[in-house]
Amino acid sequence: MVKIAVLGHGVVGSGVMEVLKKNQKSIERKTGQTIEAKYVLVRHDYDVDYKEKFVQDFDVILQDPEVSIVVEVMGGVHPAYDYVKASLLSGKNVVTSNKELVAVKGNELLKIAREHNRNFLFEASVGGGIPIIHPLHACLAANQISEIAGILNGTTNFILTKMIKEQMSFEDALALAQRLGYAEKDPTADVEGFDACRKICILASLAFGRHVYPQQVEVEGITRITPEDVAYAEDCDSVIKLIGWVKRNFEENTIVIRVCPALLSTDSQLASVDDVFNGILVRGDITGDVMFYGKGAGKLPTASAVVADVIEEVKNPENIATMYWEDAPDHYVVDAKTAVLSYYVRAKVLDTKRATEIAEKMFGEITVLSRKGQPEDEIAFLTPETVERTLDDTLAKFQSIADAKLLGLIRRLDY
Amino acid sequence: MVKIAVLGHGVVGSGVMEVLKKNQKSIERKTGQTIEAKYVLVRHDYDVDYKEKFVQDFDVILQDPEVSIVVEVMGGVHPAYDYVKASLLSGKNVVTSNKELVAVKGNELLKIAREHNRNFLFEASVGGGIPIIHPLHACLAANQISEIAGILNGTTNFILTKMIKEQMSFEDALALAQRLGYAEKDPTADVEGFDACRKICILASLAFGRHVYPQQVEVEGITRITPEDVAYAEDCDSVIKLIGWVKRNFEENTIVIRVCPALLSTDSQLASVDDVFNGILVRGDITGDVMFYGKGAGKLPTASAVVADVIEEVKNPENIATMYWEDAPDHYVVDAKTAVLSYYVRAKVLDTKRATEIAEKMFGEITVLSRKGQPEDEIAFLTPETVERTLDDTLAKFQSIADAKLLGLIRRLDY
């Protein structure tokens, strides 16, 4: 019998209780042990059929030597961080679904876990029910990972899918997502890309062994994407997705990391990841591109990943020493503008023909795009691949010389 | 220092040697150990820069207590089976990429491994470089898996992709695959579905805990698929893929398992798995659909999976007791014709209008399909979903009553 405590009883916490109950027998068969949630930490009591497990004082859990695994599903850095740290220090294993905690404190908590021969596992923090953390760490261990690119946020992917497939505006698609419960009342963390940012930080930290903090990442959300951009993207067989991506420079031991909307070719495996689904593409030197796809959020998918980690800790209570990353050296994250890529540009101009000619001269071989209902004073094109900083300079000059007013600017990525 | 022996030096064996050398440092960092291939078992000597490792007598490896891990990449059941069994019996851990061996002898070898507290790992046997065996076993452990469906053979997927995207005939696409080295001179194992069959057997055995033998599976290859079928599929927004699939009946503790070409909606994640890539969709009760995508074959992708298993065994030399399945009870695999599905039917008829009316009467609500260049005496349609055995009966009657000569018959699957 293994006794665990669940910290938090929101969406994920109640999901964990449900999964442990629903699949109790098959989990017992897989672990050879019965797993029992002895406590659930809540802020206040209410009626569920296991409310005798509710406690409001974390110390009850911390002081109980019977509890060997603490499941933290409260979210936020405080007090989650304090509880997780105290649990590890007192010799308990920890599982968390808390991406913010891992993104901000992962290096420190992994170090404490290692020093106390305990595990700090967080499969649910990225990709919900999609197995990604463990495969990245173990199954791809023969590879040196060079790049990761992912659709890491289901809310924004739902909104963009509605904009692409049903020509909705951003505002209408967001309102629909809110009505369906896919987006929160305050959707900032999703639509501004902060949620995706935490997840790409965790993936980058794990894959490359050096901690990356969310504030080190350039982040751009999807609030400025319009149906016009979607239509032009279609003209070059592309879709617009919110992508968290990171590229490693092996020679210099640096990375470029960014979250931004991006044009992806419809041939890309990521392009067909629609609605609330997530997809994560990992590029390894040996195995090439591998992609993981599934439900990136939601009560049960996330609980599935949490319980898988609990099972892992039941089977391996001692520290998995290789699941670890360290503090990064200075200048490890370099300016994202050093990346080489192509821009999609949409602009209002005085003279379309003249502006197109100027664009051709300044950017080189551009691909002119068109759309149904395109106004006479609008142009859109793709630039050739260039270092992004150079593209910025050229774009500034282009606007001034061609009398162009920028209406849309989206990166094009090659995944 | 961990010493291993590699049995076989074909495509995969030489790939394993290459990966161990190329990523030696990063593997050392991940395991805290140096991994050295002490022996490579070959049939005859030839010139490579590590030919001092070549041995032709397996007993040299078996008798050497320094060798703690045996990597079997010879293929075929004999003598691979004898070598693997002897290795496990003498206390060595084993890694294999040999799908035939696992599909035919998995239950026996896993039992020996367990009894001798050793591991028998086979990540590379399905999906090449795609992490699937371990995620299915560990990361989805909180789930009860209900279905698995996969594009498990890169050669046939390449051929079908060429037929779909470039309107090639089967024969031309096969010839191209052979020229490019994707298909063997004798392509039987691929195009007749035998390779995919071994792989779905392994996945079914692992996911449901009961051994399924290849000869228990109904297998149909892609040799009868024509460009006409591809064109009709397009008319109902579908593509034709070779799918290995298995469905579990929880109540009766039985499974339905089959390998066959199938129409899949273009909305399906599997539909966009093209060329030599593989995709495996796993349906769990908690996490819903999860898909794994990547290169399903080839020297380095397969070697990547083999070396990942070696790393796993270096980290966990003792038996992972839960990676295990047992012999199946009688009648565990039930007649695949009990599945409920829809048929795509193409037939030559005397009178199109009359035949369509008869089809409507006999099958129920059919979806009539059309294609460019459709001859006047040809009809094609989709039947409603029905138990397959009933569909067979109706189809036989339809042919006789409507004077129809069957030209094409493909299952439609809902993944």
Can you describe what's shown?
- The structure is a homodimer of 415-residue chains.
- Chain A is α/β, with parallel strands linked by helices.
- Chain A has 14 helices and 17 strands.
- Chain A has helices spanning 11-22, 24-31, 58-62, 80-89, 99-115, 133-139, 154-165, 170-179, 188-191, 194-208, 227-235, 299-315, 352-363, 388-401, and strands at residues 2-7, 35-41, 54-55, 67-72, 93-96, 120-121, 145-151, 218-219, 238-249, 254-265, 277-284, 288-295, 340-348, 367-369, 378-382, 386-387, 405-412.
- In chain A, strands 7, 8, 9, 10, 11, 12, 13, 14, 15, 16 and 17 form an eleven-stranded mixed beta sheet that branches. In chain A, strands 3-2-1-4-5-6 form a six-stranded parallel beta sheet, sandwiched between helices.
- The longest helix of chain A is centred in the first third of the chain and has 17 residues, at 99-115.
- Chain A is elongated and about 75 Å long.
- In chain A, 53% of the residues are buried.
- The interface between A and B is large, with 55 and 55 residues.
Topology, element by element:
The structure is a homodimer of 415-residue chains.
Chain A: E1 2-7, H1 11-22, H2 24-31, E2 35-41, E3 54-55, H3 58-62, E4 67-72, H4 80-89, E5 93-96, H5 99-115, E6 120-121, H6 133-139, E7 145-151, H7 154-165, H8 170-179, H9 188-191, H10 194-208, E8 218-219, H11 227-235, E9 238-249, E10 254-265, E11 277-284, E12 288-295, H12 299-315, E13 340-348, H13 352-363, E14 367-369, E15 378-382, E16 386-387, H14 388-401, E17 405-412
Parallel strand pairs in A: 1-2, 1-4, 2-3, 4-5, 5-6, 8-10, 10-17
Antiparallel strand pairs in A: 7-9, 7-11, 9-10, 11-12, 13-15, 13-16, 13-17, 14-15
Helix pairs in contact in A: 1-12, 4-5, 5-10, 7-8, 13-14
